[in-house]
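Dear Dr. K.,

Following up on our conversation at the group meeting, I've run the structure prediction for Invertase from Medicago truncatula. I'm pasting the input sequence below exactly as I used it, so you can double-check it against your construct before we proceed with anything downstream. Let me know if the numbering doesn't match what you have in your notebook.
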Amino acid sequence: MGTSWLLATFSVIILYGFAHIEAFHQTHSSIFNLNQTYKPSFHFQPSKNWMNGPMRYKGLYHMFYQHNPKGATWSNNSIVWGHSVSKDLVNWFPLQHALTPSQPYDINGCWSGSTTFVSNDKPTILYTGIDIHQHQTQNLAIPKNVSDPFLREWIKSPKNPIMLPNIVNKINATSFRDPTTAWIGHHDGLWRVLVGSQQKDNRGITLLFKSKDFINWIQAKYPFYSAKKIGMLECPDFFPVLINGTFGLDTSIKYDHDSIRYVLKVSLIDVSHDYYLIGTYDTIKDVYIPKNGFEQNNNELTLVIRYDYGKFYASKTFYDDAKKRRVLWGWINESSIREDDVQKGWSGIQAIPRTLWLDKSGKQLIQWPIVEIEKLRTNPINFNSKVLKGGTLLEIVGVTAAQADVEISFEVNELEKAQALDPSWKMDPQHLCNENDAKVKGVGLGPFGLLVLASKGMQEYTRIFFKVFRANKKHVVLMCSDQCRSSLNHKNDLTTYGAFVDVDPIHEELSIRSLIDHSVVESFGAKGKTCITARVYPTLAINDKAHLHAFNNGTVDVKIKKLSAWSMNKANINEIH
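The predicted structure tokens came back this morning:
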């Protein structure tokens, strides 16, 4: 994928006038000279510089990722495949690069791709190369030594390139990339793989290729999936999920058709978001049929489900055969300006790996941080049944607020006092989050939630909150991540993120889990139904100067049913010794 950086979200604003602008200038130079200040402690990233296909082999997890070893930002002709290994998906050891530009078909960059286990469980890489003409090609690499559990050396196939864009089908040679993990068709035994693309009329398409031997590939007559006016479909991902159950499934295994659904995820480069569709797979015609796709929603993107409503892009899943789960990785990009990235000496991280499964409603996926991350927890803080009156701010002490894991659940009553959702309002959750600024005294139920990475004097803070509305004899729950006051540095992205949560507050509690790691806040609403990731770069609320609070800015009381918070130990991630 051409823009698959790992960067970080800057959400900042000048607050309360000149005094705080002055405070920012006093701290700016010293903070930004410390390139470790904002570096996460338990999120995957290279040891330095700019940051495809994860897998598990011989007891080790492997992370392949796009990396610019020459600098802290994206550079077209310098992109290589970085490579790290782990026993637990938390602590990572760096290895030599798996792929580097070296041949005419990839001399201008080794871009995204995937790994697949072929005959005798031999791992194989399919990747996009940028050739001498800046055209995109699909290529094959195999391990030099399959007995090496570290898979330190890879050999490019002499048959490369093995897939080229079909000009007859109006495929743009610069929009043909990101092969998926391949799978076997059960009725004919042929391998199948998807490649993201677009036609010249701005129709986004996923192309299907078939092969007997994994070397000679033929493009299918019809696209696997396509949609009008949405542009390039980058980084496609395709996998089955159980209708009833949380176990992951291998795409190449045959299952009872009535027990599964299929997920097709695509990354839309024009908006830099990942969207996924749930539907069925016609294995005879080799086409994907979404229950609710882009065109069924008249290409209104706010109606199509996203993995994450914040900073999260170019995601990729893999099937973990050891724990029978589907694991999702996603790239979190920066919101800082290029000059700050260069000064830090790094940019880009991966989100905490998430386990995926289909919600019991069948309408969406549930995402939850892998259980292994919990072994970093220490110094637990717990309390139950605490009423938060309107306008209340409750500090949570005893945890390292800049490096923490916090779970909070709320019980809401007096739902009849929820604010009515005005039909004239724009039903865009991000717009509603901006309108329901968590700093301003709310009306009815909310905003209430967590205030993270807050400075002592409240010059800086980031809020993750719920707001409950009444609409058409039911209740609508809005979840927001408000970064507009996260920093006194005003050079960076201030975007506030939001999404509706499919939850009934009459029968279900409203919960938030936030993983806070210096400059990243990953939040999971309603036990993983809605996820929002933000990057924030405070100038005051750093390290031991950061504070953590629960808050209620509504006029109706809410009850904290349970709160648990932990300090998080530092993981060992790509440390060079």
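Two things stood out to me. The helical segments are 18-32, 338-344, 429-435. The domain at 378-568 is CATH 2.60.120.560 (Jelly Rolls).

Best regards,
J.T.
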